Amino acid sequence: MAITEAQVLDALRTVIDPDFHRDIVDLGFVKDLRVEGDAVSFRIVLTTPACPVKERFQRQAEEAVRAALPAVKSVTVQMDAQVAAASRAPLFENLIPQVKISIAVASGKGGVGKSTVAANLAAALAQTGAKVGLLDADIYGPSMGLMLGVTEKPKIDDEQKKMIPIKVHGLEVISLGFLLDPDMPVIWRGPMVMKALEQLLKDVAWPELDYMVVDLPPGTGDAQLTLTQKVPLSGAVIVTTPNEVALIDARKGLAMFQKVNVPILGIVENMSWFVCPHCGGVSDIFSRGGGARTAQQIGVPFLGEIPLDPSVRMAGDGGRPVVLAAPESSVAQAFRELAGHVAQQASIAAAASHGAEPEQA
Q: Which pTM does this prediction carry?
């Protein structure tokens, strides 16, 4: 008896997406199904190229078809992704409608490694094949120029009369630091901060992007409120260290985003532990586990732990994020896992913004 497409689809209904709790057929992930004799081929189109269970989906789909249809001799599964845009109504005009998913990286206080997390998160997302932009909105302490090795100033598009983002490490990047004297302090009142952020959005020729990572200044002030008004943020990632002082401020940051109805994608604990390069002993310099406890108490996802590693500092000072400078290191792996979890939560938030799970990836 000939193998039919309906039989293949029935077999694939046993593959369940762990986030949406529905099978990949109902979710519309299965595309271009072809049956040629005893050979079956199809694509699985996910909602993000950074899906942390991509390989598992591929393996489960192949095993499901072979188990249900013994007559099938060949199963070819092509994995693909199409980032689903979030739908959130900003309080005012959306200045970057060409961006599908916008992710704010924030912290309640300075010194927790927020910009380092933002740079490595953006680079790790770009490594998956996604189109990624990075907006350094840390008005008072822009650091992306140094961390990404950017020394030139943005050019101007003559037709649009807008700045062209700097292309570096697979990212489209804009920072106020590209335009200012690096040795001069930024001494601005609230209205000037708001105007500067607005210009970094509307006066930049941002291309079509799957993700824009926005590095916010620490705290809960004008910059954060401006972004929530001008950009329909898909979600916020809160960066903290494990110690209680940082966690107190992290809770304030979480509460601020919740008040302005920005989904919390989760908490990431930075500087979780340190491994001595001489003896191999593990030291919890800033304590450990506070981020996970806080996430559980507040009821938001815990995105992972990033160790305190000198290679992160050296890579940042050298203008190349550690996920690129030392891709085989344990800390680079931690950042890649973080990117997968963030993308996962962003897909869930995007689906929720439309009021239902996706019908296509």
A: 0.89
CATH number of 99-353: 3.40.50.300
Q: Which CATH superfamily is domain 5-81 in?
A: Fe-S cluster assembly (FSCA) (3.30.300.130)
Would you kindly state where each structural domain of the chain is located, as residue ranges? 5-81, 99-353
Check residue 277 and give its pLDDT. 80
Q: How does pLDDT run across 282-317, given as a tens digit for each residue? A: 888 888 888 899 899 889 999 999 999 999 999 999
Q: Which residue has the tokens 């199809």?
A: 42
